[in-house]
What does this fold into?
Amino acid sequence: MAREGVFAEVDPAILPPSARIPLALSKLIARKNATGEPSLARAMVRLGPSYIKLGQFLATRPDIVGAQAARELEKLQDRVPPFDQALAIAAIESAFGKKIHEVFAQFGEPIAAASIAQVHRARAKDAHGERDVAVKILRPGVERRFRRDLSDMFFVARLAERASSEARRLRVVNVVETLARSVKMEMDFRLEAAAASEFAENVADDPDFIVPKVDWDRTAKEVLTTEWIVGTPLSNIDALQQAGFDLPRLGRIVIQSFLRHAVRDGLFHADMHQGNLFADAQGRIVAVDFGIMGRLDTKERRFLAEILYGFITRDYRRVAEVHFEAGYVPRTHRVDDFAQAIRAIGEPIHSHTADQISMAKLLTLLFEITALFDMQTRTELVMLQKTMVVVEGVGRTLDPKLDMWGTAEPVIGAWIREKLGPRGIIEDAGRGLASLGALARQLPALVERAEDLSRRVEDAAQNGVPLSPRSVDAIGRAEARRAAWGHVALWLIAALLAVSLFVR
It folds into this structure.
C-alpha cells in the first residue's frame, strides 16, 4: 500500500508522534510514476482476490474509510483471469460424481471471471427438453487463500480496537466478521441458491422484476446452475436506447423495486450495480448474482420507512424519535437536540429541486450526525445505505432528472399507511398476543429453571463453587507454570549475585 502511494496524502499533523516516522518512510518508498488510477484500488488489486473483496466491502463503509476512499474503492473491478476449462470440468465432475456429459449436454468456455468464481454458458437436458443455463463454479483453492488473509485482517482489526476508541465505536472487528460471514456464504453456492430461491418467491407477484430460476439438480457447494437470462445489461445505455426501452421508466423500476424489497420483504439484493441488472424483452428488470444479500428485521424496516417518510414530510422530530425508540441513540441525549441536528440535514435538501435531492447523500449525512450522538454502527443499516447509493446511481444513469423522493413516496407511503394504520395496529396486536401465548407455554419450564438456579446459588453460598476435573487440571497446570517461572527467576537472581561477587 505504501508503494502505491496510499499514504501520500495523509497529514502528519493528525497522527500521534510515534506514527509520523513510519508515515515519512512510506512516502519515501511510494512509486514515482503514479497514474490517474486510484492508488488504494491499485494496491488492493496487487494484494490479491481477498483484498479486492475487502476493498469492495469497505466501499460500503464510508463511515470507516471516509467518503473519498469509498469512492475510490467503488471502482475496484472484481475481474481476474479465468481458470482453466479442465479445472472447471473437474470441479463439476467432483461435485456431482458424474462425467461432464452426464450433467450438461454442452459446456462452454468461461464468459466471466471474478475473485471467487467464474461463469460458463451450458445446455441442460432433462425430461422437459434442452435449455440454456448459466453455471457458476468456485475458483480452486480460493477458500484456503481467504482463510489465510482473513486471519491477517482480524489481527489488524483487533489491534486497531485496542489502540483507538473510534475504532471500537465503528466496531472494526465486527466489520471483518461481517466480511468473513459474507465470503463464507458466497463460497457455498447452496446458500446463494437458497437466497435466490427465497428472493424469487418474494418478487413472484411483482410485474416488473424477476429472478432467474435455480436448477437444484445441478447445484452443489462448488457449483450453481440457474436459467440463462436473455436481456440487455443496464450498463449499456446505447444498447438500451437502440432497443427502444423507456429509460426513465427503467430507472423508476430499479429504485422502487429496491425499496419494496427492503421495507416489504426485509430481503434485498445488496450488490445491485449495472452489471448485475438486465432489461428483458418485456421491459422487466432481471437481477443476477445473489452472493451478497441484505436482511432487515421488522424493527429495522420500520426505522428505514419512518426516517425516509419523516424527511419527505419534513417531520424532523419524528425522525429523531424513531432513532430513540429503536434504541440506536443512547437516552443520555435529548430528542430535541437530535431533532435540531436532523433539521440541519433536511432543510438544505428541501431547498433544491426534486431531481437534485440525493436520498443516498441524505442517509450518509444522517450517519455522520449520529456519530456525534454516540450511535453505535449498525452494519445492516450501513449496508442498506451503501446499496441505496449504488441503486440511486443506477437510476440516475438511466434518468439524470430522476425525482428520487417522488419515486420513493408511493412505496414508502403505502408501507407506512399499511403498517402504521389500523391494519398494522391489529397485526402488531396479533403478534403481541402470539408472543404472550408462547411465553405462557414456556412458563412452567422457566419456573423450573429459576428454582434450579436458586438451589445452585444456595449450594454455592454454603459449599463453594464446584469445579469440574477439567478446570482443576487447568488451574494445576497454570500454577505449575507460575512456579516454574518463579524458580527461573530465583536462579537468575542467584546468577546475577554470583556475577556481581565475581566482578568484585
The two ends are 55 Å apart (CA to CA). DSSP finds 21 helices and ten strands in the chain. The chain has four domains: 1-78, 79-228, 231-420, 469-504.
